[in-house]
């Protein structure tokens, strides 16, 4: 009887050790590629990246001077869309300003405040909340920690320690809509939203307006995925848009869902997507014809300057075509020269405010 | 003998938590970080100051409710996996009430909590009724209802009660916020409701004849049926009661912590509750204790991530290992062979004593 | 609204149904094997997410979708062995270990993903499986693209249905297998090794659920994101009960679910003004109504969910 128990517990111990070893083994295997990747990253310099590599130390000498920024994100930093662009923006801005960066991603809405409180407790100089949906949590934590600064992307709050960063959603919508209208041959274009955020709704509205302005016959199909991460759903929505409505140009505001949509378009002739917020395309990209680029890094850098100069807070930093924070990305070869020139002209009008009153 | 058995019931979970932490430590070493420093962060995050202890208690609160939901229904032999849906529907009903009725202050709170509990009970009654009348498996019905409830809540916060630009509902009126014990120890009163329910549940299940009958139905419904127990009525009752507990929990979470509904409200609480109840071996007081341990891990996970950039996944792994070991340990004790061994071994000891 | 009557619309709807039902079908069949041996495994979501990650990772590293799928299957088996050991050998409650796997496996997956692609903010594109049109048959109008122009894994999923049916009703091995879930003690006296059969069930279950997960990251999309499983394991679980533990019934349940989901997405496009959450409820409510309408008179395997103490014989 004693034996039974011993064997049982031995087996159990063995299984679990093996499992934990497997987890570690998986790590060891991948560590090589990882460290070589880290090596290349280091040669490109970046105070930010190196800080990330040795964050044990970062945690240890929190008080060792130097400025630090933390980012809270509801999606993943590798979602190939919104999260990735915002993360990249923070890293780039930090690199130029010599700041350290950390992030927490995949945070549930109900936990935003908890995570921000933790960063505030650790004395981070700036907490970057990349989206309108963080407003409540930012307000709450900012009130409790008046010495910590908060940058709220797409926000509309201005207090002593909150600065809002507001890229012009209308202009983004106009830019995408105009290009979609010019490029569509079937007169049907699509839009996929993640959640019904106000900025998303504004983008959709302006997208439709602009497309109709350049091509009055345009019809817009739109759908919300109800998620920023369900790639499969994005793929399904996009392919049903193509099959049901013959949509041939798409624009999305839904992070990883957009990636799924682009996947549905790959392999189809003459179906295109417009990227955002980074410059996602290239000259020979088959799907992304162009991107509406938001330079969040520049906006964040402005925040960092303010923190360094101790003048942070109480303002909204707008990002639009006028101050160069919005721009046209790389065109792919699928966009003919004449449309490119025509489009650039329209973007000029959007900037001047004469395109749609 | 009985005492020794009870002792084992405490030793096994404690030991399994220890082992889980050791394995977690190994993983942290693999990450190239110092496990002692990491656990230091974890515990200082949960206990570092009276504020942090309070935050940990607030995190534990909904878990106690959903844990009790699971414990209560499983004691009666029905697998109510719908804690999350009932929790959410309780909160939804409450937010409707407090934002639409205009009743404020203490009366508003009490009525709202009551309505939340009623909504949870109703939502919980659906799988019960379908089980009794149509023979449907309560597990799938309650899981489907979880999805339906979460989506309905989505409809509420994006459309029906939407507050401005972000998809979230209006906040509850300030006067209906559950007050906190003190500024330096900001625990809202909902935690006391949860603890009270845990003790009341324990008393009901183990010290009343109704509770005894309910457990009898759970142990062997056929035998209970032939003993003349109205089995169906007990089954339905346990669905309704457990649903009410979950609904009350949702309402408390709304009034005490979140103050409005938004995406992610209640997410995962239902299943965490199931795990908690099962680790606690369906003992209501044990459920409250295990919920507190889960809360420490949750609170600590966030500090660990922000402080040392250790992925929260590591703490999730530790949490799962706690479940795996704790329940395996208990099961091990129940194996006939092991039981015999312990009995004879303990018996000897008693003689020498 | 004329879009509804469009032939193209119908084909696409049905195609999409098949695409959406396939991963659920794999996992539901996995659960069928498990429950037929008396093991209720609610950890399907967890196994899927682990299979999805490992399948993606190995597929990406090796460049071969087939290797990825195989890795997904193996990883599913590995994870399910925790469940197997604890529920079969230790006779621990099955629901708990299902739950534990649902917490453990996704956490492990996200941990491994982080280690493998630490701090890259670009989305990793993995491999994807190419469609394999069946010669001649795929040319048939309407039916051709619907049934004979898929990736190999889709054929495999649907072939598994008759195979499983025949296995359970026509072969001795299958009958033995079922006996374990119905009357384990009687089975033991007939010389069937109950414990071994149960382990076997767990191996099959883990493999199929792992494949179902890998399907998501190799066939459905070619990227991995956390939360990609999105509750499909629980849907599969209900499909088994819905299908009354019979492969054909399970198939029907999966198709119904896939159809509702495919329809739901199209309805969103047709009437953008309807709140999308209400449309997304359709698959769940539909399942509930169908279930409530038919009821379940015949319940599952008799010893389903109960521990089997060999010593008690």
Please explain how this structure is put together.
The complex is a heterotrimer of chains A (357), B (353) and C (313). Chain A is 50% helix and 17% strand. With 357 residues, chain A is α/β, with parallel strands linked by helices. In chain A, α4 (82-97) crosses α11. The radius of gyration of chain A is 23 Å and the shape is globular. By secondary structure, chain B is mostly helical. Chain B is 79% helix and 0% strand. Chain B has 14 helices and no strands. Chain B has helices spanning 2-30, 35-47, 50-75, 83-100, 105-134, 138-160, 190-207, 209-219, 221-226, 231-258, 269-279, 284-308, 312-334, 336-352. In chain B, α5 packs antiparallel against α10. The two termini of chain B are 13 Å apart. The mean pLDDT of chain C is 87. The longest helix of chain C is centred in the first third of the chain and has 30 residues, at 7-36. At the B-C interface, α6, α11 and α13 of B face α4, α10, α12 and α13 of C.
Helix/strand structural class of chain B: mainly alpha
**Helix run count of chain B:** 14
Biggest sheet features of chain A: 6 strands, parallel
What sequence of helices (H) and strands (E) makes up the elements of chain A? HHHEHEHEHEEHEHEHEHEEHEEH
From the alpha carbons, calculate the radius of gyration of chain B and give it in angstroms: 22 Å
Terminal residue distance of chain A: 86 Å
Helical fraction of chain B: over 70%
Number of strands of chain B: 0
Structure summary, number of beta strands of chain A: 12
How is the biggest beta sheet of chain B arranged? none
Helix content of chain A: 40-55%
Global mean pLDDT of chain B: 87
Low-confidence stretches of chain B: 348-353
Percent range for β-strand residues of chain B? under 5%
**What is the assembly state of the chains in this entry?**
heterotrimer
Radius of gyration of chain A: 23 Å
Q: How many H/I helices of chain A?
A: 12
Strand content bin of chain A = 15-25%
């Amino acid at each position: 009887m004693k034996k039974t128990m011993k064997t049982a517990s031995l087996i159990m111990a063995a299984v679990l050790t093996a499992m934990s070893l497997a987890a570690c083994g998986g790590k060891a295997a991948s560590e090589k590629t990882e460290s070589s990747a880290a090596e290349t990253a280091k040669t490109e310099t970046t105070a930010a990246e190196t800080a990330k590599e040795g964050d044990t130390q970062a945690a240890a000498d929190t008080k060792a001077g130097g400025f630090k920024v933390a980012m809270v994100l509801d999606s993943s930093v590798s979602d190939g869309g919104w999260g990735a662009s915002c993360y990249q923006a923070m890293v780039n801005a930090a690199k130029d300003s010599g700041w350290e960066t950390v992030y927490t991603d995949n945070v549930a809405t109900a936990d935003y405040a908890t995570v921000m409180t933790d960063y505030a407790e650790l004395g981070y100089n700036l907490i970057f909340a990349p989206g309108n949906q963080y407003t409540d949590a930012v307000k709450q934590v900012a009130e409790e920690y008046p010495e910590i600064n908060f940058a709220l992307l797409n926000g509309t709050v201005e207090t002593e320690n909150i600065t809002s960063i507001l890229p012009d959603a209308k202009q983004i919508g106009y830019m995408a809509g105009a290009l979609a209208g010019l490029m569509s041959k079937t007169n049907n274009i699509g839009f996929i939203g993640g959640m019904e955020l106000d900025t998303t709704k504004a983008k959709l509205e302006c997208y439709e307006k602009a497309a109709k302005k350049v091509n009055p016959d345009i019809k817009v199909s739109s759908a919300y995925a109800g998620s920023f991460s369900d790639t499969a759903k994005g793929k399904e929505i996009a392919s049903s848009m193509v099959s049901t409505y013959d949509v041939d140009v798409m624009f999305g505001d839904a992070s990883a869902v957009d990636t799924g949509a682009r996947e549905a378009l790959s392999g189809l002739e003459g179906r295109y997507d417009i990227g955002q917020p980074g410059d996602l395309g290239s000259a020979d990209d088959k799907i992304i014809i162009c991107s509406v680029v938001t330079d969040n890094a520049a906006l964040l850098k402005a925040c960092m300057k303010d923190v360094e100069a101790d003048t942070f807070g109480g303002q909204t930093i707008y990002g639009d075509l006028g101050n160069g924070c919005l721009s046209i990305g790389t065109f792919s070869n699928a966009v003919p020269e004449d449309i490119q020139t025509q489009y650039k002209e329209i973007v000029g009008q959007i900037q001047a405010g004469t395109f749609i009153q | 003998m009985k005492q020794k058995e009870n002792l084992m019931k405490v030793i096994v979970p404690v030991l399994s938590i220890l082992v889980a932490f050791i394995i977690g430590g190994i993983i942290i070493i693999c990450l190239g970080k110092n496990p002692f420093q990491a656990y230091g962060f974890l515990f200082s995050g949960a206990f570092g100051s009276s504020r942090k202890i309070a935050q940990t208690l607030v995190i534990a609160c909904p878990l106690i409710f959903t844990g009790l939901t699971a414990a209560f229904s499983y004691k009666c032999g029905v697998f109510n996996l719908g804690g999350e849906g009932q929790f959410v529907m309780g909160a939804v009903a409450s937010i409707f009430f407090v934002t639409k009725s205009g009743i404020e202050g203490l009366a508003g709170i009490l009525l709202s909590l009551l309505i939340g509990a009623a909504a949870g009970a109703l939502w919980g009654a659906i799988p019960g009724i379908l089980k009794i009348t149509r023979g449907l498996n309560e597990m799938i019905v309650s899981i489907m209802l979880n999805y339906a409830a979460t989506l309905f809540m989505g409809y509420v916060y994006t459309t029906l009660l939407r507050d401005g630009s972000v998809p979230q509902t209006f906040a509850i009126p300030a006067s209906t916020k559950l007050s906190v014990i003190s500024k330096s120890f900001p625990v809202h009163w909902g935690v006391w409701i949860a603890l009270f329910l845990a003790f009341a549940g324990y008393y009901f299940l183990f010290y009343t004849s109704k509770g005894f009958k309910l457990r009898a139905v759970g142990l062997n419904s056929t035998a209970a049926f032939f003993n003349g127990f109205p089995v169906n009525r007990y089954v339905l009752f346990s669905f309704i009661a457990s649903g009410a507990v979950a609904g009350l929990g949702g309402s408390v979470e709304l009034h005490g912590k979140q103050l409005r509904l938004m995406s992610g409200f209640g997410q995962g609480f239902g299943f965490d509750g199931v795990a908690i109840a099962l680790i606690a071996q369906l003992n209501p007081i044990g459920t409250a204790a295990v919920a507190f341990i889960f809360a420490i891990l949750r609170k600590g996970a966030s500090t660990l991530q922000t402080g040392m950039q250790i992925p929260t996944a590591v703490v999730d792994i530790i949490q799962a290992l706690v479940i795996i070991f704790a329940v395996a340990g208990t099961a091990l004790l129940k194996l006939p062979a092991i039981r015999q061994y312990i009995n004879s071994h303990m018996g000897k000891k008693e003689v020498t004593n | 609204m004329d879009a509804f009557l469009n032939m193209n619309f119908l084909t696409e709807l049905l195609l999409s149904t098949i695409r959406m039902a396939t991963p659920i079908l794999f996992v539901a069949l996995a659960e069928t094997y498990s429950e037929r041996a008396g093991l209720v495994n609610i950890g399907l979501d967890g196994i899927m997410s682990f299979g999805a990650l490992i399948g993606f990772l190995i597929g990406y590293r090796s460049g071969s979708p087939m290797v990825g799928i195989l890795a997904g299957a193996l990883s599913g088996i590995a994870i399910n062995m925790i469940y197997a050991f604890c529920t079969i050998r230790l006779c621990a409650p099955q629901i708990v270990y299902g739950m534990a796997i649902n917490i453990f496996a996704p956490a492990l997956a996200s941990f491994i993903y982080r280690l493998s692609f630490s701090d890259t903010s670009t989305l990793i594109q993995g491999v994807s499986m190419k469609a394999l049109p069946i010669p001649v048959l795929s040319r048939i109008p309407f039916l051709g693209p619907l049934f004979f122009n898929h990736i190999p894994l889709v054929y495999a999923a649907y072939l598994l249905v008759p195979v499983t049916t025949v296995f359970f009703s026509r072969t001795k091995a299958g009958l033995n297998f079922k006996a374990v879930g119905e009357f384990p003690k009687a089975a033991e006296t007939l010389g069937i090794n109950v414990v071994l059969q149960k382990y076997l069930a767990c191996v099959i279950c883990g493999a199929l659920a792992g494949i179902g997960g890998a399907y998501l990251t190799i066939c459905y999309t070619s990227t991995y994101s956390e939360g990609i499983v999105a509750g499909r394991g629980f849907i599969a679980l209900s499909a088994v009960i819905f299908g009354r533990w019979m492969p054909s019934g399970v198939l029907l349940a999966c198709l119904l679910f896939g159809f509702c989901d495919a329809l739901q997405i199209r309805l969103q496009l047709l009437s953008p003004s309807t709140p999308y959450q209400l449309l997304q409820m359709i698959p769940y409510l539909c399942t509930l109504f169908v279930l409530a309408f038919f009821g379940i008179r015949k319940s599952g395997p008799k010893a389903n969910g109960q521990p089997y103490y060999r010593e008690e014989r």
